[in-house]
């Protein structure tokens, strides 16, 4: 039995890139012969994908190699739209949770991410200047209702960004979002007892006010809260997102008998969305298994990858997706929750999360490896899974990320 490697997997030398014979060919890049899974178009079949001028130009059963300048041989691989991870922490060097975006996102098949509250009104300018504007990964953000973002909480300092409610500032949150609507897609609040304490609902009301003022979704971190989840849900609205849905510890979606709370089912029926947000302490095999048996599925599968879980148990989004394959979701359902659904949950620019002609030329290539692999949840419980997705190559806006590391061969 193998354990998932902790090394950063960039690309496999087994995926050759070839130069076509016609430099004036209509397509810049052809991803040839992979099993394309694109839930936005209902495609799950062997197809060729052609890209021109950074956009998807064509999908067909067969596209002649002579029509492309460069060819990626994806035979035997899974080809998807560039993955979207709606819960990461990539404010490296400022938020203690932060990790570098590129080696942990685009190098792992994730072309687009949503930094979930690492920055607040006072610290977002730095996120924009030193991360968003310079990395290859396409980074968007949810703005923390606390002006300092997640710049305070670490294992050595347990006082979070809302330990003092005066750090929450609705007016500054609204102002910062209005000035940065091209990159901020919503509001984030973390509700845990060591952060907001008895004032958690007061803080939530402030976040609610900000989200409504800018007409964007609110993402709420649950678990370990002073207030009960039903009271929290009462303050949420259609389009808002609960993250850490399958949390094992107190404050999750199950009652003490393992049943999904009726308030959770009602909230989902009313348009509140469920996100995984695996993280270091927010995903339990047992909770997910129980919820799925009760037909409560997440709308989006996200990693919540950060400094304290990137070496395990999270590792990356592909590993999180692999866990849901083990839990019984189909490959198509898993990919949908990391492509189409994220694109519909948040107001990303059109053309992400799909391979429809005219969309952004973002493509992820994976190997679906068969075997026995031990993966862990956030409470160190193992499961032996028999399939896992391994990132092989990532294409963003028609360009192969890190292609210098892949040998170019002549057909």
Sum this structure up briefly:
This protein has 411 residues and is of the alpha/beta class.
Short key terms for the protein model shown above:
alpha/beta; TIM Barrel; Urease, subunit C, domain 1; eleven-stranded mixed β-sheet; 411 residues; 2 domains
Structural class: alpha/beta
Count the E strands. 18
Pattern of helices and strands: EEEEEEEEHEHEHEHEHEHEHHHHEEEE
Unreliable stretches: 2-14, 404-411
CATH architecture of the largest domain: Alpha-Beta Barrel
Give the averaged pLDDT, no decimals. 92
As for the CATH topology of the largest domain, it is: TIM Barrel
Radius of gyration, in Å, reads 21 Å
CATH homologous superfamily label of the largest domain: Metal-dependent hydrolases
Overall 3D geometry? globular
Instruction: Classify the oligomer.
Output: single chain
Our count of helices gives: 10
The helix fraction, in percent, is 10-25%
Q: Can you summarize the main beta sheet?
A: 11 strands, mixed
How many independent structural domains?
2
- What is the CATH C level class of the largest domain, in words? Alpha Beta
């Amino acid at each position: 039995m193998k354990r998932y490697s902790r090394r950063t997997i960039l690309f496999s030398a087994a995926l050759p890139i070839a130069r076509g014979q016609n430099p004036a060919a209509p397509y810049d890049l052809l991803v040839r012969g992979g099993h394309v899974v694109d839930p936005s178009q209902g495609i799950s079949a062997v197809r060729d994908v052609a890209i021109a001028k950074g956009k998807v130009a064509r999908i067909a059963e067969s596209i002649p190699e002579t029509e492309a300048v460069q060819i990626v041989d994806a035979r035997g691989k899974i080809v998807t739209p560039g993955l979207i991870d709606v819960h990461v922490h990539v404010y490296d060097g400022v938020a203690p949770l932060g990790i570098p975006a590129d080696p942990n996102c685009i190098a792992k098949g994730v072309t687009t991410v949503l930094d979930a509250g690492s920055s607040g009104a006072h610290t977002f300018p730095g996120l924009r200047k030193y991360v968003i504007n310079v990395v290859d990964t396409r980074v968007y953000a949810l703005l923390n209702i606390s002006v300092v973002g997640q710049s305070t909480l670490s294992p050595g300092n347990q006082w979070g960004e809302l330990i003092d409610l005066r750090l929450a500032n609705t007016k500054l949150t609204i102002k910062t979002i209005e000035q940065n609507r091209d990159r901020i897609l919503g509001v984030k609040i973390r509700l845990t007892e060591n952060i907001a304490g008895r004032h958690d609902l007061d803080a939530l009301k402030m976040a609610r006010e900000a989200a409504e003022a800018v007409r964007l979704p609110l993402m709420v971190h649950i678990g370990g809260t002073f207030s009960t989840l039903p009271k929290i849900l009462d303050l949420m609205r259609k389009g808002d997102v609960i993250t850490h849905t399958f949390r094992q510890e107190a404050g999750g979606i199950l009652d003490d008998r393992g049943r999904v709370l009726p308030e959770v089912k009602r909230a989902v029926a009313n348009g509140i969305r469920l996100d995984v947000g695996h993280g270091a302490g927010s995903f339990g095999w047992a909770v997910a298994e129980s919820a799925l048996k009760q037909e409560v599925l997440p709308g989006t599968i996200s990693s919540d990858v950060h400094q304290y879980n990137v070496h395990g148990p999270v590792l990356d989004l592909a590993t999180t997706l692999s866990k849901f394959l083990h839990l019984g979701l189909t490959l198509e359902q898993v990919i949908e929750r990391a492509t189409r659904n994220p694109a519909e949950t948040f107001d990303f620019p059109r053309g992400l999360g799909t391979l429809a002609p005219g969309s952004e030329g973002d493509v992820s290539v994976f190997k679906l490896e068969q075997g026995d692999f031990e993966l862990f949840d956030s409470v160190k419980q193992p499961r032996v899974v028999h399939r896992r997705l391994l990132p092989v190559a990532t294409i963003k806006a028609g360009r192969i990320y890190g292609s210098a590391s892949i040998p170019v061969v002549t057909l």
